[in-house]
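Handout, section B. The chain below has 432 residues.
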Amino acid sequence: MSNQETNGSGHDDYALEPVPKSARRGLVSMSAVMLGFTFFAASMWTGGTLGLGFSLWPDLIIVVLFGNLILGVYGALLGNAAASTNLSTHIMARYAFGTNGSKIPSFMLAFTQIGWFGVGVAMFAYPINKFTGAPIPVLIAVGGILMTLTVVIGFKAIEWISKIAVPAIIILGFMSVIKAISSAGGIQPLLALQPENKMTLAVGISLAVGSFISGATLTPDFVRFAKTKKTGSAATIIGFTFGNSLMFLFGAFGAMSTGLSDISEVLAAQGLLGAGIALLALNIWTTNDNALYAAGLGLTNITGLKRHHLTIAAGAVGTIFALYLYNNFVGWLVFLSVSLPPIGGIIISDYYLRAKQNYPQPKDYKFKSFNWSAIIAWVVAIAASKLSPAEGLLSIAPLNAIITAVVIYAIASKVTAKDEPQSNGGDLSKEA
């Protein structure tokens, strides 16, 4: 690896080391990136699914707020850790899972982000197809290539596009909501609507959390660029609690008005497809860039190869499987809601409870190869998620998985504390 890539410049983007002070960003830049991440058309699609399964008040509002509160708190804990250490999710996972053990969650997270990239590429292609008639496969190929090229450039390109796309999608979303209210004859008819196939609150909250739990787990990949811990935590809360809630509500209003959950079909039915197509494409582009960027970091942790080469490979795979992923969207959310929350729970438990917010420098730390405490906690947390009851206080499977992972890992770490490797360097959180 060249000196340029090792010191974080060029295409490496500090993939395997802390982000230096010279590359860190303030609240405006970090909030734009996190909002660009959570302002995703797929979240509007999830909101549309929820809008067809719940009455607007109070059920839908409860589901949206509670689901995103879980995501916001979970993401903020990870974001605070990332802003303190300036490390990616995958390097933080080395402390919890071990050097080789961390490759398992890195693979899972990279795999899911490649999947989200594929969903986004298809969602980019369909509305353009409806507006122009251009062939879907061609649009998918072109969209996949353009998005991948942006990610190869790195965090700076993601930041730049996000600052354009965030205000654009807010405009589009409110245009859709105004159309929905107008076509329904006012807000009262929408409030009076009752779903034909009503979901339970547990299922709705699980879908809301599952729709972005992979993104929340990867919060450190972006928040590691924050100048301070407060900046990192604030940007994360803004992104998930505010940004994702808006996306759900935009999608829900459109679905309740038109009876359609697919955002491109909603925009077409509202006569907004032509005006909104550029805004929607920008919106999808920003989140897809974040997803593919995170996938590249995960694959770098697994292989040690150059991030930009792995990004190109991941973009190609996501583009090829775009149509399959698009047509199996709900099943994808269910898979994510079960398997990914424990990873973040284990990292949270390791950083706050075992390490007491004191991670030594990666280059000075003697990592375990496999930390079986983390593997055991992950398996038990997935089981707890799968065994969650259908109703009641304990019915939210993703939350059960996170809490179980935190507790089991903390207990297992206490038992195996005598085997902890020793560091030879300073505390990352105290680095200048």
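Note. Residues 52 and 195 are 6 Å apart (CA to CA). Compare this with the example in section A.
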